[in-house]
Structures are given as structure tokens and as C-alpha cells.
Please model this.
Amino acid sequence: MQNSEAMALSAALLAVAGELTRRIHDGVVARGFEGLRPAHGFAFARLAPDGATVTDLAVHLGVTKQAASQLVDELVRKGYAARRPHPEDARARLIVLTESGWGCARAAEEAAAEAVRGWDAALTEEELRVLRETLLRIAPDGPIRPTW
Amino acid sequence: MQNSEAMALSAALLAVAGELTRRIHDGVVARGFEGLRPAHGFAFARLAPDGATVTDLAVHLGVTKQAASQLVDELVRKGYAARRPHPEDARARLIVLTESGWGCARAAEEAAAEAVRGWDAALTEEELRVLRETLLRIAPDGPIRPTW
DNA sequence: ACCATATAGTCAAACAACTTGACTACCTAC
DNA sequence: GTAGGTAGTCAAGTTGTTTGACTATATGGT
Model:
């Protein structure tokens, strides 16, 4: 593949990612969850399964733990997350989603589904399936970070 | 497609985009172009063909023209771009890439090609081609913005 | 059991990117 | 020619993040 083709692929990927991020964010806002930025969504992704510590979050987001701590402050203040004592380490705290936080996570899923449905006009169901599988194959195991 | 599948697709897409951005940035730095952030890359994308005005850039990046102007200041100070008088409008200035700026743009293409080659381990040449065409079909016409 | 060292988290100050507000120079249309 | 709009910049304020310093708890060696 030529350099220019690789760049075209990259640009398309980044354009789609940017647009998707914007749509998910708008969809979440439209469902009544305000005061959140896309960066919070990346935190939710890490918190959702079983909670996480501030340090876990910091690594996941690629920021300092101070920044992660402030982000958690914000989520707690807005009622989306809560700090609970960590069951195995008295120094640490387990950050978990509240009911409202789970509602927001569901809203994000709905918004994502809605955004993806918007691609139906350009892609068949089969192409969409192939796209998903292809991306899952090259997606890094690691964290989702808003690098730029 | 179920909501959770759409979310998995979205997460994979964002993870790949984040990783790709990081790799391109690292590759550009490795080629000796320093003091640049990924955001500058998005500006380059708009400046590269024929230059652009500050207002064009601001719209493209989704920021205020003051922010775009500051970003141009930085590129000029670092020797990647220059402000030239606009041929048709004495109020405006045409921002163009310098030789060093073009060198950086080429470095970004090489870095992108290198990053994409890293996917060869997981994808066949044919799958890569399909991925590129699929993404180009759903990529918005609009600007590439670092929305998050 | 004790001490040295490392880790989890927070507070505070410094910093960087961006926004809002105000202004000048130039363009465009009536 | 004059009124209103647009391109760009300067300055100040806001926001998110980092760097530095500190406390509390954990861990490993002796």
C-alpha cells in the first residue's frame, strides 16, 4: 500500500472516529445526561464492568492520577459515580457507577447504535459486520485514550 | 445490530483511532519533527493542498478563530508554516506550509504507512483494501476534528 | 516485630490550550 | 459614501492537566 493510500485510510478512520464521538456525545445529551464530555465516556468504559481505582483509571486514560482523581470528583459531584472503600486495600478506593451512571452508560449504547444505524445508507448489513470484525481484530488490547 | 454490538464496534473504532494517532505522532517525532501535537496534524491536513485562512482552519478544527490563530502562531514560530498576504482579500492572510512543513507532512504519511503496515499481521491485503473503501464510504465530507 | 521502601490517593500551585470580549482594518451592498 | 459584515489580532478569564509535596497504608527483608 502506498503512503498516500495509508494516509487516506488514516484520515478516513480519524474522520469517522471524530464524527462517531460527536454523535454519541450528542445522543447522550439528548437523553438528558448533561455536564459530561467525551472524555468521561472513556472513563465509563473502564468503570462499567466492576469499578476501578483512580490509578487504574489514570493508566486507562493516559493521564496522571491527579487528573483522573479530579475527573472522578466531577463524576461524583454530578451523581454518576461513587467512591467506595476498596475491599482488599485500605489505601485504595473503588470507584463504581451509580444508578444514574448506569443509565448514562445505557444511553451511550443507544446513541452508539443510532449513530451506527446512520451508516446503513452507505453500507449493507454484511459490510457492517465485516467492518466490526475487522476493527476488533486490529484494536489494541490496551486502553482507549483520547490521545489528541 | 444490537446496542451492545454497536458499542463494541464503536469502542474498537475509537481504540484503533487513538492508537493510530499515537503511532503517527510518534513516527513524526522519530523523524525529527518536534514540538508538535496531534492537533497540528489536523491543521496540516487543511493547509497542505493550497493553504488556508485562519478562519478556514478554525472551521475545520471546530475551534474559535482566536484559537486557530494561536495555533498558527506556534506553527510559524517553529518554522512549519508562514503567513502570506491573501491574493484576493487584503483583510485575510493565506497560511501556507514551509519546506519544513512539507517535510513534516511527508513524515506523517510515512508514519501512517508504517502504522498501517503493523496491521498486516492481523489482516490480509484484501481485507485492508476493503477496510479502506468501507471507511471512505462512511467518512463524513466535513472536517477532521479532534472532538474529544 | 520493626524498619525501609513502595504504592494509593489527595491538596495546592503552575501551566497550557482554549474561550469570551473588545478592537482595527478591510470588504460589500445599498 | 456610508452602514453593516467579515478577517484577524490582542487581552483577559476559564478549564483541564501536570508537577511537586504530603499522608496513609502496604510489602518485604532482617
In short: Residues 37, 39, 63-64, 66-67, 70-71, 89-92 of chain A lie near DNA strand D (CB under 10 Å from a C1'). Chain A has a mean pLDDT of 92. Chain A touches chain B through 62 residues (CB under 8 Å).
